[in-house]
Each structure stands twice: as structure tokens, then as C-alpha cells.
Design goal:
The strands form six sheets. This protein has an eight-stranded mixed beta sheet, covered by helices on one side. The longest helix has 14 residues. By secondary structure, the chain is of the alpha+beta class. The protein is built from seven helices and 20 strands. The chain has a single domain, classed as Clavaminate synthase-like (Double-stranded beta-helix), CATH 3.60.130. The structure holds succinic acid (SIN). The site of succinic acid (SIN) has 10 residues, from strand 19 and strand 20.
Length: about 290
């Protein structure tokens, strides 16, 4: 197993590890260490069934089963299908997942630890691959905050609402998803988390607020909360914190969700096919601390 750390703020490649097979505790520890240090890890040239993807992912924590999501691998509901492909007149997968900056599951009481995505079809045009996944580094964004802001916001909490991203997709991205029903909103009520968390691998502080779901800093008056969130959203997307991952078919990409935010770049057309299988690992084995 060989680990290559990229020169950018995030990203590493691990070669020589076949994710379809069990691996040793030392190898597991090295993957976790790399994930903590680099946030985003690529495992190239993998050949996995949906079951093998789920088994690999489940080593890091419980897997989320999204009951509202129709796009699941048959018989393996922990594996979600992301795709813009249509087969026999029906969509193969969820076509517009994650197409703006967010952190998965920040709107949930138990937050996400990591995502594991397996790239099966990746669109390209003129020799350049499309449909990159972009990331921003929340360890570095925390460190880059003014000292007085770190001090003043310490101990405060942020309210995260699933409906914020949903409505943004309908309003700004032409998504055809219908509004959430009252019952769906009740099933996913807004939840609060500390604005700064201690990362479970690095034990360092991270900024845990994201433009996709964060709606309010609970301890501040409304106007000050809106101004502070606007500042944080701009700050956390500074070019020095950013990293773009360009997919190749056969890549498994794993990222941790506590110290990064991400964005799926929708720069491909309906005939440029993208097919990705995805597992959502919850923070049940690796827990954040407030
Ligand atoms: C996601 O937000 O999980 C989707 C990322 C991607 O499709 O690149």
C-alpha cells in the first residue's frame, strides 16, 4: 500500500489496496490517518460490487439508509445511485445530488463522518473529464479565522435545516423536485450543532457550518447571525482552502465530512453520462466533540 499526498490543501492517493478484500488493522489505521491528514482520499482502479462498496464503507461507521430515496442498489439500500442516465424511460439514479456547497447530514442529530463514492461512468469532453467534486478544508478555514472571531463564537451553536438546500435547488438550479411535504419536514426538523467541533481523527478544531444547511447562529440576534454566517460562508470558500477532484472511472473517493465541505460540479449535459455509487458513513465509530 502506497500513500501519495498531493501538494494542495486536501487530497491523497492510496494505491495497492484492493477494497473488495478485507485488509489488516494496520492498513485500516493508515487509511484513517490519511483521511484525517488529507480529508479526501482516492483509491484508483477499483472493481467493486455494490455489496463490496457497502462492506468497505461499513468498516468506518454505520451506513445511512435514506428511506425517501428511490435510487438504491437493488437489495442493498445502503448503496445510493447518483446518475443523470435514463434507461427504459426511467432515471437510473438521483441526477442532481449535492450540486452546491454543503456538508452531508449536518441537518441530522447524528452527523456524517465520511462519504465513499465509486465512479463507474465519468463524462468527458475533448479529453477533459467533467463532473468534478470540489472540496474546501474546514481545519484550515477555522485556523484562518480572525482570533477574536474564534474567541467570540466559541461555544455557540448553528441551526441546520434540510429544507434550505432543497429549496435552493428548486429556486436556483431548476430542479424538478417538489417542495417537501409537511410530513417530510416534520421527519427532518432543523437541528443544532456547535459552530466549532473537535475533529475525531486530528483532535483539532474545525469550522462546522456550511452554506447548504446552516440557517442561524442560535446565540446571536437575527441580523448579527445573518451577517456572521454570510462572512463565514465567504471565508470558508477562500481559494487557499479549495481542492477540486477530477474523477477517473474506477476511482473510489472517500472524504471525511467533519473537516470538509463539498460541491458536485454540474458541468456536463444530459448525454454525457455520469454514474456513481455512494455510501454515507455516519459518525457512530468516529465521533466529533463539541
Ligand atoms: C454528494 O454530495 O454526495 C455528491 C458528490 C458528487 O456526486 O460528486
Amino acid at each position: 500500500m502506497q500513500v501519495t499526498r498531493g501538494g494542495e490543501t486536501l487530497g491523497a492517493t492510496i494505491e495497492g489496496l484492493d477494497l473488495s478484500r478485507p485488509f489488516s488493522p494496520d492498513e485500516f489505521d493508515a487509511v484513517v490517518r490519511t483521511l484525517g491528514e488529507r480529508g479526501v482520499v482516492r483509491f484508483p482502479a477499483q472493481e467493486l460490487t455494490g455489496r463490496q462498496l457497502a462492506d468497505f464503507s461499513a468498516r468506518f461507521g454505520e451506513l445511512e439508509i435514506n428511506v425517501a430515496n428511490a435510487y438504491q442498489e437493488p437489495g442493498i439500500p445502503e448503496v445510493m445511485i447518483l446518475s443523470n442516465m435514463i434507461e427504459n424511460g426511467r432515471p437510473v439514479g438521483l441526477a442532481d445530488a449535492g450540486q452546491d456547497w454543503h456538508t452531508d447530514m449536518s441537518y441530522s442529530g447524528t452527523i456524517a463522518f465520511a462519504n465513499v463514492l465509486y465512479g463507474i461512468k465519468i463524462p468527458s469532453r475533448g479529453g477533459r473529464t467533467l463532473g468534478a467534486t470540489e472540496f474546501s478544508n474546514m481545519h484550515a478555514a477555522y485556523e484562518g479565522l480572525p482570533a477574536e472571531m474564534k474567541r467570540d463564537l466559541e461555544g455557540m451553536t448553528v441551526l441546520h435545516d434540510f429544507n434550505k438546500f432543497w429549496e435552493m435547488m428548486r429556486r436556483e438550479k431548476g430542479s424538478r423536485r417538489p417542495p417537501l411535504t409537511e410530513a417530510q419536514r416534520k421527519a427532518k426538523p432543523p437541528v443544532s450543532h456547535p459552530i466549532f467541533l473537535t475533529h475525531p481523527i486530528t483532535r483539532r478544531r474545525v469550522l462546522y457550518a456550511n452554506p447548504g444547511y446552516a440557517v442561524r447562529i442560535n446565540e446571536l440576534p437575527q441580523k448579527e447571525s445573518a451577517q456572521t454566517l454570510a462572512y463565514l460562508f465567504e471565508h470558508q470558500l477562500g481559494p487557499e482552502y479549495r481542492y477540486a477532484f477530477h474523477w477517473q472511472e474506477g476511482d473510489v473517493l472517500m472524504w471525511e465530512d467533519i473537516g470538509t465541505i463539498h460541491n458536485a460540479v454540474a458541468d456536463y449535459g444530459p448525454d454525457e453520462h455520469r454514474l456513481i455509487k455512494r455510501c454515507q458513513v455516519m459518525a457512530t465509530r468516529f465521533h466529533e466533540e463539541g
